[in-house]
Amino acid sequence: MKNHLLIAGVTGSGKSYLENQIIKRLSGQFIYIDPKMVELADYEGQPTCKRYAADIDEIIDALDDAIAEMDSRFTVMRARKEKLWSGSYLYIVIDELADLMLSDRKKTIRQQLATLATKGRAARVILICCTQVTTQDVIPQMILVNLPNVICLRQRNAQKYRYLLGEYNGKLPEYGVCFLVTPDRDRPQKTTTETAIETLIAQE
Q1: Domain ranges, ordered by start, for the chain
Q2: What is the mean pLDDT of residues 48-64?
Q3: What is the spatial distance between Cα 35 and Cα 168, in angstroms, rounded to a whole number?
Q4: Residue 204 pLDDT > 70
Q5: Architecture of domain 5-151
Q6: Is the pLDDT of residue 20 over 80?
Q7: What is the CA radius of gyration of the chain?
Q8: How far apart are CA 151 and CA 138, in angstroms?
Q9: pTM > 0.90
Q10: Are 5 and 126 in contact (CB under 8 A)?
Q11: What is the pLDDT of residue 59?
Q12: Is 154 exposed, middle or buried (0-12, 13-18, 19+ CB in 10 A)?
């Protein structure tokens, strides 16, 4: 998966299942950001886990590490006169985004995520952001526009769909169906979550 991803859906919409299925099918290293200390805890200590962070200070330090890795890759790319990193991917998996963006350290975290979202793709440093809360203070427009892959699961109302997708095509059922946004599509596509996963993984 070569583009940043946002997975958004209310409780019971299948967000955690999607998140874990995507992680299992990707190859590369991972930084896991898990403020709830539940969803991603099983990945701590695995060979592909570069860092696991749950405490807010650890999270900020882990995101700084990701930015440092990204900058290091750009230094190598400049020396090689390359426009795209030729090595492995580094995925930063965040669950739950709202816990970070509504914390007392939100200004620092917002800047870190904006930096990774705008610059990370060329260095193959990819964000996977998951959230139940789809408000502008949780997903600022400056970050949303740099997350070209979106899996929109069931939302609370039409306004939430419009913010994520730019349009409203009706509510989704509780499980198994989503709206998928990718850079190569003009409009959101209604599809099964399994098809969405396969489409994103095929971006590699």
Answers
A1: 5-151
A2: 97
A3: 31
A4: no
A5: 3-Layer(aba) Sandwich (3.40)
A6: yes
A7: 16
A8: 16
A9: yes
A10: yes
A11: 97
A12: buried
Amino acid in position 45? G
Query: What end-to-end distance do the CA atoms of the chain give, in Å?
Result: 5
Q: What is the pLDDT of residues 169-182, one digit of tens each?
A: 778 777 889 999 99
4 near 121, Cβ under 8 Å?
yes
**CB contact at 8 A, 151 and 6:** yes
Q: Which residue type sits at 105?
A: R
The 10s digit of each residue's pLDDT in 71-81 is 999 999 999 99
Tokens coding 167: 């349009």
What is the rounded average pLDDT of the residues 128-152? Answer: 93
149 Cβ partners below 8 Å, 6+ apart? 1, 3, 4, 5, 6, 181, 182, 183, 200, 203
Rounded (10°) CA dihedral 9, 12, 13, 17: 100
Instruction: Flag whether pLDDT at 157 surpasses 80.
Output: yes
Three-state SS for the chain is CCCCEEEECCCCCCHHHHHHHHHHHCCCEEEEECCCCCCCHHHCCCCCEEEEECCHHHHHHHHHHHHHHHHHHHHHHHHHCCCCCCCCCEEEEEECHHHHHCCCCHHHHHHHHHHHHHHCHHHCEEEEEEECCCCCCCCCHHHHCCCCEEEECCCCCHHHHHHHHCCCCCCCCCCCEEEEECCCCCCCEEEEHHHHHHHHHCCC
